[in-house]
C-alpha cells in the first residue's frame, strides 16, 4: 500500500502542476486513500522461517544429548526455553519502535519449542498416547496465540499443523478427522475476517478443502468429486458478493480457490470412468457423509443468496463479463452434479464427461481472454496450459489414427499462436493508451 500511495501522491502533484485539480481537490483525493503503514511481510516471513529452523536445530541438539540430562533439568530446559522465547518477544513488543519481524520470529520459535515440549514431556514421564494427538494440541496452542497477538504467522502454523494432523490420521490410521474442518471454520476463518487478511483467507480456504477432502474420502471416496465441486462452486459464487461486504478483498481468495477446485474436479470428471462415480453416491447408513453434503448445500445456498442480494443492490456493474461467463459455466456443472445426487443415478460415461470437457475448455478460454484483456501473463499461461492439458488428454482417449492425432497437435499449436497474437495486440493497445 505504501508504494501505491507514493505513486498516487506523485500523480496528484503532477495534476496540480498541470492545473487539472486545485489544492483542495488534491487533498480530498489523497484523503480518500489514506496511507497505511508498510507491514513488511517479507521480513516477517523470513524471520519466522529462521525461527522455525533454529527451533528444529535446538530440538535435534537436545534430542542428541537427552539421555544424559537429569529429569528436573529436562523440565527446566523445556519450560525455560518456552518462557524465554515468548517472554523476550513480549518485552520487545512493548518497546517504542517494536521490530515486528523479530517479534513474530521469537513467537514462532516459542511455538516450535511448545511442540517439542509436548514430545519431550511425554518421553520424560513415559506417556503412551496416540501420537497424532500431539499435533492437535500443538495446533491449538498456535491458534490461541494467533488470536491473542493477533498473528498471521501463528495462524499459518496452526493451519499447517491441522492439515498434518488430519493427514497422518487419514493415511496412517485410516481415520477421518471430522474435527479438522471445524477447527478451520471456527478457529481460522473468523480470524481472517476480523483481520481482513486476504492471505490468511486464501490459506484457510485451501486447508479447509484439503482436510475436508480427507474426511469425505475416508467415508466414501466416490463422494469426493461431487462434494468438492459443490464446495468449490460455493466459494466462487461467494466471491461475487464479497465486494459489497466489509471485507471486499475476500473476493480474490474466494474466486481463486473456488475456481482452482472447480477446474481440478471438472478436469477429473472429463474422464468417463471418473464421471461414472457421480451416480454412485449413497447416503444410506452414512450419517456423517449426509452431514457433510448438508453443510455443502447450506454453504452453496448461502453463497447464492449473498451473491443475489449483492447484485440486486449494486447491480451487475461490479461483476465483469468474464466472471459472468464463469458463473454460467460453473452453474451448468453444478446442475449436472446436483442432478446426479438428487436422482441418485446418472448416465455416466461420455454423457457426463463431454459436458465437463466443454466446461473446462470454456473456463480455460475465459482465463486466456481475461488475462489478455488485463495483461496478466501468468493467467494467460495458466489458461493455455489447461487448454493443452484437456486437448492432449482427449487426444489420448479418442483418437487412434496418426493423421487425426497430427491434426490435433496442429490445431493446438495454431490456437496457442493465435492466443499469443491476441495478447500482444492488447499489450500494444495498452501501451498506446499510456503514451
Brief sketch in words of this structure:
The protein has 17 helices and no strands. The protein has helices at about 1-15, 25-30, 40-65, 70-95, 100-125, 130-150, 150-175, 180-195, 200-220, 225-240, 250-270, 270-275, 285-315, 320-345, 350-375, 375-400, 400-435. The two termini are about 25 Å apart.
- Contiguous helical run count: 17
Counting helices, strands and paired strands, the structural category is mainly alpha
Which stretches are poorly predicted, pLDDT < 50 over at least 5 residues?
Answer: none
Compute the CA-based radius of gyration. Answer: 26 Å
Largest sheet: none
Oligomer: single chain
What's the pLDDT, averaged over the residues? 83
Helix content: over 70%
How many strand elements?
0
Order of helices and strands: HHHHHHHHHHHHHHHHH
Overall body shape? globular
Instruction: Give the N-to-C terminal Cα separation.
Output: 25 Å
Q: Tell me the β content.
A: under 5%
Give the key terms:
globular, mainly alpha, 435 residues
Write the layout of secondary structure elements.
Layout lengths: L1 H16 L5 H10 L8 H25 L5 H23 L6 H25 L7 H17 L3 H22 L5 H17 L2 H22 L4 H18 L9 H19 L2 H4 L11 H28 L6 H23 L6 H24 L3 H22 L3 H33 L1
Amino acid at each position: 500500500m505504501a508504494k501505491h500511495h507514493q505513486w498516487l501522491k506523485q500523480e496528484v502533484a503532477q495534476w496540480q502542476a498541470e492545473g487539472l485539480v486545485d489544492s483542495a481537490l488534491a487533498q480530498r483525493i489523497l484523503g480518500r486513500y489514506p496511507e497505511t503503514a508498510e507491514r513488511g511481510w517479507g521480513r516477517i516471513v523470513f524471520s519466522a522461517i529462521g525461527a522455525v529452523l533454529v527451533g528444529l536445530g535446538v530440538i535435534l541438539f537436545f534430542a542428541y544429548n537427552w539421555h544424559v540430562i537429569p529429569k528436573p533439568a529436562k523440565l527446566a530446559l523445556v519450560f525455560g526455553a518456552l518462557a524465554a522465547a515468548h517472554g523476550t518477544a513480549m518485552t520487545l513488543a512493548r518497546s517504542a519502535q517494536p521490530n515486528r519481524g523479530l517479534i513474530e520470529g521469537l513467537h514462532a520459535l516459542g511455538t516450535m519449542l511448545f511442540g517439542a515440549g509436548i514430545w519431550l514431556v511425554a518421553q520424560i514421564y513415559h506417556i503412551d498416547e496416540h501420537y497424532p494427538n500431539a499435533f492437535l494440541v500443538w495446533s491449538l496452542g498456535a491458534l490461541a496465540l494467533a488470536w491473542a497477538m493477533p498473528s498471521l504467522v501463528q495462524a499459518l502454523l496452526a493451519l499447517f499443523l491441522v492439515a498434518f494432523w488430519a493427514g497422518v490420521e487419514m493415511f496412517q490410521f485410516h481415520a477421518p478427522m471430522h474435527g479438522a474442518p471445524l477447527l478451520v471454520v471456527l478457529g481460522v476463518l473468523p480470524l481472517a475476517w476480523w483481520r481482513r487478511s486476504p492471505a490468511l483467507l486464501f490459506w484457510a480456504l485451501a486447508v479447509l478443502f484439503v482436510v475436508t477432502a480427507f474426511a469425505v474420502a475416508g467415508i466414501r471416496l466416490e463422494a469426493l468429486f461431487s462434494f468438492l465441486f459443490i464446495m468449490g462452486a460455493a466459494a466462487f459464487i461467494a466471491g461475487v458478493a464479497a465486494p459489497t461486504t466489509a471485507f471486499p478483498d475476500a473476493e480474490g481468495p474466494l474466486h481463486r480457490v473456488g475456481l482452482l477446485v472447480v477446474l481440478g474436479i471438472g478436469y477429473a470428471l472429463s474422464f468417463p470412468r471418473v464421471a461414472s462415480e457421480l451416480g454412485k453416491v449413497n447416503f444410506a447408513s452414512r450419517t456423517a457423509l449426509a452431514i457433510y453434503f448438508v453443510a455443502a448445500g447450506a454453504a452453496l445456498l448461502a453463497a447464492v443468496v449473498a451473491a443475489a442480494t449483492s447484485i440486486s443492490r449494486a447491480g451487475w456493474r461490479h461483476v465483469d463479463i468474464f466472471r459472468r461467463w464463469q458463473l454460467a459455466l460453473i452453474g451448468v456443472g453444478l446442475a449436472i452434479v446436483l442432478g446426479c445426487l438428487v436422482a441418485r443415478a446418472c448416465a455416466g460415461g461420455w454423457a457426463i464427461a463431454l459436458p465437463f470437457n466443454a466446461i473446462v475448455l470454456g473456463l480455460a478460454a475465459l482465463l486466456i481472454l481475461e488475462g489478455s484483456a488485463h495483461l496478466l501473463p501468468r493467467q494467460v499461461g495458466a489458461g493455455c496450459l489447461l487448454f493443452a492439458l484437456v486437448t492432449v488428454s482427449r487426444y489420448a482417449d479418442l483418437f487412434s489414427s496418426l493423421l487425426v492425432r497430427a491434426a490435433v497437435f496442429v490445431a493446438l499449436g495454431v490456437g496457442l499462436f493465435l492466443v499469443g497474437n491476441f495478447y500482444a495486440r492488447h499489450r500494444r493497445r495498452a501501451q498506446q493508451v499510456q503514451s
